[in-house]
Amino acid sequence: MRHLFLNGPVQNGPFTFATRPGKAVGIRLAAALNAILGLPPAPHLWNTVTLAGDLRYHEADGPTIPRRRFEADLIADKYPSGQSPVGGIMTDTDAEVADLALETIENNLRAGTLTISRETVPICRACGHMTGIGGHPCNACGSTDTLDRTNLHLVAELAKERPVLDRSDIHASHRRQPKHLQRTSANIAQRLILSRTRDHGIDLSPVGLNGLVLDPRVGIHVTVLAAARRHEAEMAVMTITENAANHIAAHGQHFREQDGTRLQYALHGHLPYDHMASLQPLYEAYRTTQEIEDDFEAWFLPVFSLRTRTATSPGQLPALFKHYMRARLADPVTADAAVLEAVQHAVSTGDTEWITNKRALAAVLAARATAPVTAAKV
Ligand SMILES: [Zn+2]
Hints:
Layout: E1 3-7, E2 10-11, H1 25-36, E3 44-47, H2 51-59, H3 67-76, E4 89-91, H4 95-111, E5 114-124, E6 146-157, H5 179-184, E7 191-193, E8 195-196, E9 213-214, H6 216-230, E10 235-241, H7 242-248, E11 257-258, E12 261-268, H8 280-285, H9 290-304, H10 317-328, H11 337-349, H12 358-370
Parallel strand pairs: 1-10, 2-3, 3-4, 10-12
Antiparallel strand pairs: 5-6, 6-7, 8-9, 11-12
Helix pairs in contact: 1-9, 4-6, 10-12, 11-12
The chain binds zinc ion.
Zinc ion is lined by residues 124, 126-127, 129, 138, 140-141, 143.
């Protein structure tokens, strides 16, 4: 298998997909693209290494269940009941992710791109959390009392001979390269500390860093690589917004390739799910069924989000719905194999023109109608 699309791990915060469908865009997009390529459903990826998660766990009445189980229950609650993902769930602390992370760290330590060195960092005097520079209150406990502590840490040296992100890191055709992202992601220190104080995460004691875990921004990359490795994909394509990519790209620089598996980012915009009610008159005019509305909202819109830099505006919704319906109602003769093959090639190369092409979209819709996918509804 060459490509596998995987969602940028979703933060396991307090929401459900029913109330916050915007959180599912990356998952829905990855599922749609994998299905077009005829690939099996990929696991849904989750980011559980968060300070908010540490705090939530402490606040839960006397946590009587292990943290891993606590996170798993929170994830399960996000899905409509009985709708767990066909491809399974993988979190950023699963054993296979931790194993791959340590393997990648050890390779990087040998290559000298990562080092373990004594670093002086500000920590909270009250709780020991690494507070970062800037003198703001501790994010873990609110104390403003910090002190400098010198300890061993895992440090990344950013490559000088190449930018944080270049063309080979982005799954997009040449014309759609995100120049802005490539510039902003480069505005970062030359050295990054990749070890963190967290209660839950990938334990770094096997490399001699007791009490520290791997920075979750690194872990997100390793989770995607681990999922790709499980499916023997050569190219793991992570669906992610430009903002999120900007936040994690530098931390992932030495974690985008392992054992012949490469990682690329496929950028998508936000969707105006809060404004779907504005489509009601149009839905009525077209006498749509619930199935059509669901497919437009949970399949077409996520696919369309690949074509937008930051967000789809609510004002675009009627035109997008009409485009989707025209393709849906097109003569089934348009579902020819050559058009479908061209779309599959486009999906593999990051070309998104087909999404706004009626004939191409009709071919994909017709193919889906004959081989319906059994993806979980999220
Ligand atoms: Zn604190």
